[in-house]
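FORM 12-B: Structure-to-Sequence Request
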């Protein structure tokens, strides 16, 4: 049996727990995937914690502690469900790389930090599999923003000496990885471009019994309002130079509401405008920092939003080929969970997982805290 690693990713969309079981020797191969459910009550509590509107006003620390424990149990069960689904024994998994659930990302200021919860000790204890977690802390300790971390994986999977490629992850937030034609990851750059699906999800959930705008159909039924679009694109985040990262702390329902003040716009017009806004902010990042891009690989759930991809293509000045990462053997939905399987492997091999040029860290560092399965001395 090949040496396997398991990646766990619960992202800012809070749409579920992506699980990926992968081998890396002799080459990368996804052996199995699994999507764990995030119960509605847990999702509501996480959103309440992130935006501090808890229904029962319990102390913040108690809510964080309990959610950390509940998520740890849930992530552990998700691992067990994934292994059962694919009939893989836990002894075949060398390590789990668990991103956890980001509840606050504050990469700037006197004491920058990024808080992911989902107790990794519980994951290791319940699964008896060595679990690596808390990946962002060491990069921040080395002066970085702790995000984005997937560019190192994108480079390992997609960088080639013969073509200038960019990878765009369209998750709740969107981030890009710029891969110059090279075999040297020192040339790789990347950053968070701004919102991905987050505003599209928030808006449609107010008007449809749908978690997201399936294929972008709601947006396609409306008209983009240029005045609103102009206001959205003038958010100060877009003028910041890289390295930069963002999250729900900035782009969220309150941010959206403070910009929606034109009652003449229909819900579909707003959805169309938010979709154009997301597409244009991603396209501007590529055109500004990677105008010679030859191939753009799309991943993340936003890769399924046909209207968003159509608007991205329309806004890109560079004449690059646009395709999903599935063209390179990795389905867009599984890139991030695969990345955390890969990051866990990097850590166990004592190899660095960050790219200082991406995060702003002073150096490459080994990421994560290791929770061993069990003591070899027991
Ligand atoms: N068929 C579809 N049509 C339109 N949008 C879709 C479709 N399928 C998924 N999505 C979008 O993808 C989102 C989930 O994407 P993904 O799982 O990459 O997010 P995430 O990992 O939580 O985000 P992040 O990368 O910020 O951590 C959904 O919330 C939805 O907006
Ligand atoms: C703090 C945090 O969770 N950031 C996420 C978010 O979602 C997409 C983008 O913003 C990215 O920077 C990051 O996650 C991915 C996995 C990353 O670190 O590359």
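FORM 12-B RESPONSE
SEQUENCE OUT:
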């Amino acid at each position: 049996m090949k040496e396997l690693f398991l990646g766990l990713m619960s992202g800012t969309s809070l749409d579920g727990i992506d699980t990926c079981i992968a081998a890396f020797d002799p080459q990368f191969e996804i052996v199995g995937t699994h999507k764990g459910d995030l119960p509605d009550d847990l999702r509501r509590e996480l959103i309440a914690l992130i935006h501090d509107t808890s229904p029962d006003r319990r102390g913040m620390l108690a809510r964080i502690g309990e959610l950390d424990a509940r998520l740890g149990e849930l992530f552990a069960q998700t691992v067990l469900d994934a292994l059962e689904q694919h009939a893989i024994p836990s002894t075949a998994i060398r390590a789990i790389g668990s991103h956890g659930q980001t509840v606050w990302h504050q990469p700037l200021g006197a004491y920058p930090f990024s808080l992911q919860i989902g107790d990794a000790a519980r994951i290791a204890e319940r699964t008896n599999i060595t679990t690596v977690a808390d990946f962002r802390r060491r990069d921040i300790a080395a002066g970085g923003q702790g995000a984005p971390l997937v560019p190192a994986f994108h480079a390992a999977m997609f960088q080639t000496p013969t073509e200038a490629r960019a990878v765009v992850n369209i998750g709740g937030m969107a981030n890009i990885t710029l891969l110059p034609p090279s075999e040297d990851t020192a040339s790789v750059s990347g950053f968070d471009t701004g919102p991905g699906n987050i505003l599209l999800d928030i808006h449609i959930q107010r008007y449809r019994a749908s978690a997201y705008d399936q294929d972008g159909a709601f947006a396609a039924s409306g008209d983009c309002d240029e005045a609103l679009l102009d206001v959205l694109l003038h958010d100060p985040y877009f003028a910041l130079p890289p390295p930069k990262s963002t999250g729900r702390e900035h782009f969220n329902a309150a941010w959206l509401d403070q910009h929606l003040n034109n009652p003449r716009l229909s819900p579909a017009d707003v959805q169309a405008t938010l979709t154009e806004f997301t597409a244009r902010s991603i396209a501007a990042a590529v055109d500004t920092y990677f105008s010679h891009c030859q191939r753009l690989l799309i991943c993340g759930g936003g890769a399924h939003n046909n209207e968003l991809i159509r608007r991205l293509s329309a806004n890109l000045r560079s004449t690059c080929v646009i395709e999903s990462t599935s063209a390179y053997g990795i389905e867009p939905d599984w890139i991030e969970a695969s990345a955390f399987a890969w990051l866990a492997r990097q850590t166990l091999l004592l190899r660095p997982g960050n790219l200082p040029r991406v995060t702003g860290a002073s150096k490459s560092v080994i990421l994560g805290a290791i929770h061993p399965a069990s003591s070899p001395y027991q």
